[in-house]
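--- STAGE predict ---
source: upstream dedup step, 1 unique chain passed
mode: sequence only
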Amino acid sequence: DAWQRFANLRLLYSFMWAHPGKKLLFMGGEFAQYAEWNSNTQLDWNLLNHSPHRQLREMVKALNNTYQHERALWAQDDSFAGFEWLDCDDSSNSVVGFVRKDEKGDQVAVLCNFTPVPRHNYRFGIPSPGCWLEIFNSDSEYFGGSNVGNEGGVESEPIPWHHYDQSVSLTLPPLAAIYLKKQSM
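--- STAGE serialize ---
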């Protein structure tokens, strides 16, 4: 089904942009071109007449902007210090989470739900107390999603979870990734 195909692309791209390593998206991928790229023809620009393709392009634009402005997503790409798993063991819910960090201590948590079911009141251990702003949500209606989210952010609680003293309870949108940025004190 077309909705799930685009939701899967939104999730995949969001995960890929936040994961360590250099980014590569081949020509036409930013708007979900169907045909394989051919050097003898132009891209299928006419696909942008359809909203799912336009919305995916807008999401890639937003990801690029977020990536450019959030040092934590790229500053320590070549170091173990720039990446930490929050949880990579919840196979029953198909959820993973990790934190990207820069050398100054800025942090962006990336939480992914690989199922078409929203996860409400889902708890993640978090490395730092305070407010975590939702700076990106691949399920935004602007990108063709269902607009499930966390109303701008979440506050940590002193509830130990995973291997952290603090945790957050949040909503994970279906087939989506959210980025939470730790607010400076």
